Amino acid sequence: MLQLKKICKDYVTGTETVHALCEVDLAFRPCEFVSVLGPSGCGKTTLLNLIGGLDQYTSGDLVINGRSTKHFKARDWDTYRNHTIGFVFQTYNLIPHQTVLANVELALTLSGVSKAERRRRAKEALEKVGLGDQLNKRPNQMSGGQMQRVAIARALVNDPDILLADEPTGALDSTTSVQIMELLKEIAATRLVVMVTHNPELADTYSTRIIRLLDGRIQSDSAPFEAEEEEEIAPAQKPSKKERKTSMSFFTAFALSLRNLLTKKTRTALVSFAGSIGIIGIALILALSTGINNYITDVQRDTLSSYPVSLQAEQTDMTALMEAMMSAQESEQHDLDAVYSSSVLDDLLNAMTQTDKNTNNLADFKAYLESGAVDAILEESVRAIHYGYDLNLNVLTKDVNGDVVKSDMMEMMQTAMGELYGMSDTGLGNMENIMSMTGMDMMAGFEVWQEMVAGENGALVSEMVKEQYDVIAGNWPTAYNEVMLVVNSNNEISDLCLYALGLVSEEEIKEVLASSMKGEAIEAQQFSWSYEELMAKDFRLVLGSAFYHNIDGKWVNMGDTPSGLKALYETGTPLKISGILRPNKDASAAMITGTVVYTTALTDHVIAEGLKSEAIKQQLADPDVDVLSGLPFPQEETDITVAVMRDRLTAHIAKLKTDGKAAWYATVMSYISEEDVQQQVQMQLSMMGDDEARIQMLAQALSQEFGSRWTRHSVTSPSCPRRSWKRIPPRCWRRASVCRLPRRCKRSWQASLPSSRRRCWMRRCRASTRRASSGCMRKRRASCSPPPPIKTTCRRWAMWTPILRHPSICTPTSLRIRTRSPQ
């Protein structure tokens, strides 16, 4: 039974509200033919849509078989419309490309009925409306009355409880209208039929109940449903059908869609073409944007891995110096009435004296990172954390001549350059330290051994390294003593590292450097080796403490002699090249700068074994005294006196043996003070006779040295009577000769000139100096005195101190954080 209780329906259009239905109270019998009459706009169609579930009421309640619809969900309304309601529309709403039978079957596709059952029930419904012989016709081949019959058959095929007809005879002639009304009257004998019409004659003739509406309100009801009837009708109601949820099988939906596409081939082709253009365009844009984003992400990831965020234990702040260099191009604004000086040199020197050295507490920072307090941040932004301890591995190998050498290109270059350029190892080491502090690492190209970034969960190699490099021979390291050789994308290794790998001898490197000093052209040679030859190279790791042996209470460096190096090589830990790496083509940047890479397991091995050595144990027991030299480590003392220095020197000499005292005596005696030099010069001059004799002797010597093309001239000054000088060609002797006098004589000579001539001479002197020939400049450089000797310091402690870096007793010197690509 269908019942409407105080139903209201309002339509809001902007600021205006239209009341379509106002408090409509109706109750319908299970089987009756109800006609709803009224003028246009009175709410007839709205009432029909509310009963059919096509529209929702504003207030009130719609009760269906005793069940309120206030809390109906969308699926409940679908089930209600599919199994309880049948619609008959004025415009038929038939699918033109489907047959009559298919149109009627369509109402059953959402009910989950099988195909055979759908066909059987559709035929029965068409036979009831008198169209059993026109099953295969299409709607456009039928008359209006026949199409309305098809619409009625489609509404009845699902056996609904309520049939709703919206002016079913509005588009039909009178004869056909009578036929349709007769059919509806016959249907009303078994179910409820609610019809909306404008024809009162048909309503009076065929309807059992007439309801009139006006302005959304019920004006009259010819046969209202009373409560007493409800009690009588309830037992006679037919049992309710088991409602099934709305559903359509995949194959049914696919068949209907395919039939629809094949019916209108041209439209389908055009729509498909237009849709494909849009889909392809969107796909191309998405593919392009995704590819570019992935490429940018890869570039950022590779670049950040090559230039990680690096924290140093000590770092020099060069901000003031950089600001001074950047501001060198800028100057203070002043009037353009004269020439002013720019204080670039003063600013640079002041900036260099103002540089600060920053110290970072990496020990506490390391503990903070490992505490897990920033795990969320690290997982999102940081890809790997690598701790560095300035570990210089002492690796020995054999060169092509079979000699044992250190696999250290930097040390060999320092030794070779010291021999060729006359600089000591200490001088080169100090220069390297200075340039490293200022960010200009002169030896960066000689780095051979480098530690790889470790992976997660104890993995020896990080996945980031495996993403950037391919193994072209061998395999990844699996043990602490396995290393890998790194080549570039062209399968090449730098010739700077050939010595460290034992592929060339030290003499060959020195010959190249000597040829370079002489200005000779160096012919480039290219060598090649097979993978097996390189992987067969033998390296031996020697701990820094193993270089020193305690002989009679004194630590002796075994690496100072070839025989000592050979003995160390025999007892060292063998290192094996497990594979060869090459940057893959997809990597935009490579993070490895060395030639031979090792894992953190080797670092841990060096730490563990180093702590077992007697030298380190002795040093840890007395950290203030250098166990190698027996002297205390230098400390900053500002109030040290001569007496304290004398006492310390006396105590140090007393500890030395005979050979040590002899070496110390030779060093002291080789030092000559400036006063001694002047005394010797005066003595030699006095032995050369008077001033005239010395002048002639010097002129003759200079003439023989510079050749006959030089004219002998003498330039003397009253304040410098004992110095006589050979000068240059006559055409420029007055200008250039005096310019090359020593500063002391030149000043005295200038003082003897009149002021006008002195200014004229100074202008000409500057000009002639700029135009001096290369020969003149060589003579000028030859007359310069050699630089003072460079004082050396003991470096033995620095050779093995870096191994004292166990986490329990020392602090890392650097921390590199390799970040992920930004999201």
Summarize the structure.
It is built from 31 helices and 25 strands.
| Beta-strand content | 15-25%
Sheet of most strands: 8 strands, mixed
* Overall geometric form: elongated
**For the terminal residues, how far apart are their CA atoms?**
62 Å
Helix segment tally? 31
Give the helix level as a range of percent. Answer: 40-55%
Mean pLDDT across every amino acid position: 75
- Tell me the total number of β-strands: 25
**Radius of gyration from the CA trace?**
53 Å
Unreliable segments of 5+ consecutive residues = 234-239, 434-444, 707-742, 766-811
Q: What structural category do the secondary elements indicate?
A: alpha+beta
In words, what does this structure look like?
The chain is an alpha+beta fold. Helix content is 43%, strand content 17%. It contains 31 helices and 25 strands. The strands form six sheets. Strands 15, 16, 17, 18, 19, 20, 23 and 24 form an eight-stranded mixed sheet that branches. Helix 4 (115-128) packs across helix 5 (144-156), helix 11 runs antiparallel to helix 12 (344-353) and helix 15 crosses helix 18 (506-517). 22% of the residues are buried. Residues 234-239, 434-444, 707-742 and 766-811 have low confidence and may be disordered.
Topology (SSEs and partners):
Blueprint: E1 2-13, E2 16-28, E3 32-37, H1 44-52, E4 59-64, E5 67-68, H2 74-83, E6 85-88, H3 100-109, H4 115-128, H5 144-156, E7 162-166, H6 174-187, E8 192-196, H7 200-206, E9 209-214, E10 217-221, H8 227-233, H9 250-263, H10 265-306, E11 309-312, E12 314-317, H11 319-326, H12 344-353, E13 356-359, H13 362-370, H14 375-381, E14 382-388, E15 394-398, E16 404-406, H15 409-421, H16 425-437, E17 449-451, H17 463-468, E18 469-474, E19 482-486, H18 506-517, H19 531-535, E20 539-542, E21 548-551, E22 554-557, H20 562-571, E23 573-583, E24 596-598, H21 600-610, H22 614-621, H23 642-655, H24 658-669, H25 674-686, H26 691-706, H27 733-739, H28 743-751, H29 755-770, H30 774-782, H31 796-800, E25 814-819
Parallel strand pairs: 3-8, 3-9, 6-7, 7-8, 17-24, 19-23
Antiparallel strand pairs: 1-2, 1-4, 4-5, 9-10, 11-25, 12-13, 14-25, 15-16, 15-20, 18-23, 19-24, 20-23, 21-22
Helix pairs in contact: 3-4, 3-5, 4-5, 5-6, 11-12, 15-18, 27-29
